[in-house]
């Protein structure tokens, strides 16, 4: 599904290298988690994969189902099946949630050569998915994320994910600022979307999210590269012991 090989990336404005030969593969149907100390490059990886400006790829490649992500515009990556859940979802004043979602869904369907959803079919789908995510119908009528709590913003992103049905979902510290109940709702939404044709890359600081979203593989990132990979027990080890010994061992 997602394959990253020897990726080197630097900040354009500061000429500062952030990713330093990162390699990673997420097969179809799997959930991989990335953990690591602050400044290790976790969020930079998510931004580069989604096509955010301000970064220069100096070496390496990233492909989705064999197609080069790095050669695509951000909207082309989205149409190809890539979705990024932000650490801090942005507010879009004046744009209703329903309008935003229907426009996004139909733009992607059009880009893939599929028929656009009618108003009736769209309403049927979004109401069903919102109900499953415990999202109030009134929330759908409000401007995107305006006045939403942290938990509402994250649940709204999961709703976007459910409607867009991406094949590769990248979640950048989606547990940031969530209380236990909100985190469980978000995790339940993610787990409901798991399947053989959809993969997840979950970037997190804390093992607690992984109590609810059981990963197949956990990667530890430091200084712009993956330094160790293992099963879910690796996240528990980090929770108990911290990163010190592991990073010292990795050199």
Automatic annotation (TrEMBL):
PROSITE patterns the UniProt entry points to: ABC_TRANSPORTER_1, ABC_TRANSPORTER_2
SMART domains for the chain: AAA (SM00382)
InterPro entries: AAA+_ATPase, ABC_transporter-like_ATP-bd, ABC_transporter-like_CS, FeS-cluster_ATPase_SufC, P-loop_NTPase
Keywords: ATP-binding, Nucleotide-binding
Domain of life (superkingdom): Bacteria
Cell membrane found in the keyword field: no
Every ABC transporter domain range: 2-248
Family: Belongs to the ABC transporter superfamily. Ycf16 family.
Protein name per its UniProtKB record: Fe-S cluster assembly ATPase SufC
Organism name: Paracoccus maritimus
């Amino acid at each position: 599904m997602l394959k990253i090989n020897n990726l080197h990336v630097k900040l354009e404005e500061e000429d500062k290298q952030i990713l330093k030969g990162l390699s990673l593969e997420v097969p179809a149907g799997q959930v991989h988690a990335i953990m690591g100390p602050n400044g290790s490059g976790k969020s930079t990886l998510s931004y580069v994969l989604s096509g955010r400006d301000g970064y220069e790829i100096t070496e390496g490649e990233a492909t989705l189902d064999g197609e080069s992500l790095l050669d695509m515009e951000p909207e082309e990556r989205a149409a190809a099946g890539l979705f990024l859940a932000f650490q801090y979802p942005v507010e879009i004043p004046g744009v209703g949630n329903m309008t935003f979602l229907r426009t996004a869904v139909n733009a992607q369907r059009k880009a893939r050569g599929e028929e656009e959803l009618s108003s009736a079919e769209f309403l049927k789908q979004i109401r069903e998915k919102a109900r499953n995510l415990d999202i109030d119908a009134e929330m759908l009528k409000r401007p995107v994320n305006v006045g939403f709590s942290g938990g509402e913003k994250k649940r709204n992103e999961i709703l976007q994910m459910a409607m867009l049905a991406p094949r590769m979902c990248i979640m950048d510290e989606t547990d940031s600022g969530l209380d236990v109940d909100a985190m469980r709702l978000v995790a339940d939404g993610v787990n409901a979307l798991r399947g053989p044709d959809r993969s997840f890359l979950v970037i997190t600081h804390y093992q607690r999210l992984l109590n609810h979203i059981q990963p197949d593989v956990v990667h530890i990132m430091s200084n712009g590269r993956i330094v160790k990979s293992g099963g879910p027990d690796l996240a528990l080890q980090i929770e108990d012991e911290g990163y010190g010994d592991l990073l010292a061992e990795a050199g």
